């Protein structure tokens, strides 16, 4: 149980700070003598006290300036055997002539277990919401100040009891208080901030998105979902869906935050992959080898409109003529080019053959027989998802500037004018036509040169060793082959390509 205790305290005009109700009973020591709390629980209860109220009362019932703020504190343990706890509270102070001393200070506090094992931020919203609801009830009907029930009894005690039980067992509660008010609380886990989404990233679903999507979702989200298939990059998805790139990135980031997608690299036969330190996991796990065989076997690969999704870190098919989960072990292995089924050793060998300096195209050429009936993209994707393959990106660094040579000579008109002109109107027409064709060709070549020069200027901005080829090609809309050819040109100067 994450919640060890819940207690309601207030400032009493005669007694000062005091605990009115606590669940479980005697979980909070209310005596000022700590030695009595250390000896053991009272005879009327088997509950061992978690903390002493007197040591933290000035923080739970603070001065008026500190009220209305979330207070988190770690009370000192009552004994060396007392487990560490964390107390979350949100004290409220109401001022009115109706109250003695013209103010009423109360606090509902949660006592949590070991903070390192609990998602503490999710409980902070619970404490705040409970305090705000009780404030509204007190302002409406004096719900707290007019309560005269004995300690650990009555409707407030029952409310705390149900709240603790429901949150510990179901992580949510819906407790009716009166005809107009209901306490609705749900624990939402605090998720880490998602990674930055780049235009060259490729999103892949980890859930069956068709089971959770509905017509009330964001319009941009609904437009991009059909194009998220583990192949299209974020920029391509935006183009296919006719959506703004910034909005598309926000939608993908939203899906990434809730674990609905994961991000991959653009698959290319010129890409380089290498095993990680986790590769040993595949070599020892025969079930993972079978799982990989089922996933990459082209006999079970869904079509383009039946793209697979990832579930619990492993992609599973959403449709298909064959239910691969019911196949026998000997039926899941892909066949080689000679018709023989491969085994787990061959799967491990194929992953081991991927290394630095070897492109996917070269790797395929060396293992063409084993890969005859294996989906290469899914094979690589499986390794990346499982964590025993990583993408080796290529970066370009410009080490020396180059020079641009432009051919300024254009003798078309000069040569034409040097010809002996005829007085024939037919000859004059031919001369003018030829000149027009040459001017048009020169203008066209000039436009191409300017376009190439502009593109080369843009490429140079990425040649600082911090931009991978995927980024450059995606941002400029060119292919990797075209990029490599331009990097070898004299205009670029000396360019070094590194892999890491």
Structure report:
The chain has 500 residues and is an alpha+beta fold. It folds into 4 domains: 3-186; 202-264; 272-392, no CATH class; 396-499, no CATH class. The chain has helices at 34-39, 53-60, 120-141, 154-170, 219-224, 234-241, 245-257, 279-284, 286-296, 344-353, 360-366, 376-386, 412-418, 425-460, 469-476, 480-487, and strands at 3-12, 16-23, 28-29, 51-52, 71-73, 86-89, 92-95, 103-112, 172-176, 182-186, 202-205, 261-264, 272-275, 309-311, 314-316, 389-392, 394-400, 464-468, 494-499. Strands 1, 2, 5, 6, 7 and 8 form a 6-stranded antiparallel beta sheet that branches. A 3-stranded antiparallel beta sheet has the order 18-17-19. Helix 6 packs across helix 7 and helix 9 packs across helix 10. The longest helix has 36 residues, at 425-460. It starts with a strand and ends with a strand. The model is unreliable at 33-45, 304-325 and 404-427 (pLDDT under 50).
